[in-house]
Amino acid sequence: MTVTQSIKSQTGVAAATQPRVAVIGCGHWGKNHVRNFAKLGALRAVCDADAEQAARLAEEYSVPAMSFVDVLASKDVDAVVIAAPAEQHFGLARDALEAGKHVFVEKPLALDVRNAETLSRLADDCKRVLMVGHLLQYHPAYIQLQAFVKKGELGRLQYIYSNRLNLGKIRREENILWSFAPHDISMILSLVGEEPEAVSAFGSEYLHEKIADVTTTNLRFPSGACAHVFVSWLHPFKEQKLIVIGDRAMAVFDDGRDWSDKLTVYRHQISWRDGAPSPIRADGEPVALPVQEPLEAECRHFLDCVASGERPRTDGYEGVRVLKVLTRAEQSMTSGRRSPEPNAQAAGDSDYFAHESAYVDEGVTVGPGTKIWHFSHVLPGSQVGSNVNIGQNVVIGPDVSVGNNCKIQNNVSLYKGVVLEDGVFCGPSSVFTNVNNPRAEINRQTEFRQTIVRRGATIGANATIVCGHELGEYCFIAAGAVVTGDVPAYALLAGVPARRIGWMSRAGERLGPDLVCPSTGAIYKLVDDDRIEPQDN
Fold first, then answer.
1. Phi and psi of 290, rounded to 5°?
2. What's the pTM value of the predicted model, to 2 decimals?
3. Which part of the chain is CATH 3.30.360.10?
4. pLDDT tens digits for 409-451?
């Protein structure tokens, strides 16, 4: 028996209103966006840090290869698709929204919940579409599965089980949880229709001592439903399977099977006889599905939303919900215990240390292994990661985000608007402003400007960071410098105002003309006059 189904087809926008798209990041996955938007007649430009790759695709699809700055300035581009490395998503998306472009960001929307929330609010303020690339939400099998759940054909959801397994693609910039699990978490949250009240995760590292290759995540929801997500890139064969168990029927979405068997419903029942449960098995009912590339459907949906102004199926706020679960799973995996609901952790918890003279207000989240020393104060709404060392007389907040493994030395104040990513070093008495023109008698709280300090950056003693700028990853700000603009990744800045005087490696070594790190031998390459990046060896 075959279950009848109907999926509403997504119609394309009229040619006269067809949005014009530039793809930012044309590598392993971005090139597929280039192909699909070209197929849909919407591609207008490509942009990639690898000039040769951009040129190849530009020639193949007869569009210009442009810089990101030129894309933002172009009146011939209505929207951008960001398929760059995850750590660049927030900055690129923010700049694009502020330039008036509609934005499609590949998962994850950002690496920090607050950054993702900022993008979602910014999109609303700018009246622009913000969409997140949770691809499987656009798979015909999942769309039909979700319809079954909404109609109650499976009954009350009891538990959901997902596997996403493969041999590779192994990454070094993120663990398997962040690489594979967002798709499953996105599907599960949409099926259940609520956020989990408890998240626990366990990970194992085999190829690198700090990057998990295999993780298991468990979610428990207020309705009583539970979910289990198992992901690995060290598996002998590929498996992408989502199993949904209801009290009336069960469904299996197996993306590794042929289209005729990708979605199957099992109307198994459990009967009770003499107080004991007994299964009543039924044959599987394959669901007929239209054969359609999910990425093409996803790209078409983005174009339709830009043309109509409708909110995407996977908008920024959906991306925020997924990111919250990922963050809680990461915290649980790091600490070895279940992550409570957001903001439930209090200063009395035993997995971080706060000196008796320090104050940690209610509504603050502090990760395990963090130490907060004498006379420091963490204000409400702030999030402090794991293994952070906060020195004496430090003020953090309100609503400040500090990543994992940061070191904040004595007499530093991080006011609202400051975001530190993982591994940032703030030297003694370094200063962050949040208003450009303060006056004691004028309230300028509505004028606070955000300052983003990217992963691994170092800020020397007594340096001043003027608000509203971004400090690139692994940059190095010399003691006493005054930073008045954006700082490129790996740049060495000194002086008042600060100027770039060289380049630094990830290991904190100054690079010579050969751009080779003297301590590790890592090789860097000059991308243009104002930017370098590690060279793949």
1. -70, 140
2. 0.61
3. 137-291+327-331
4. 999 999 988 999 999 999 999 999 988 888 888 877 778 889 9
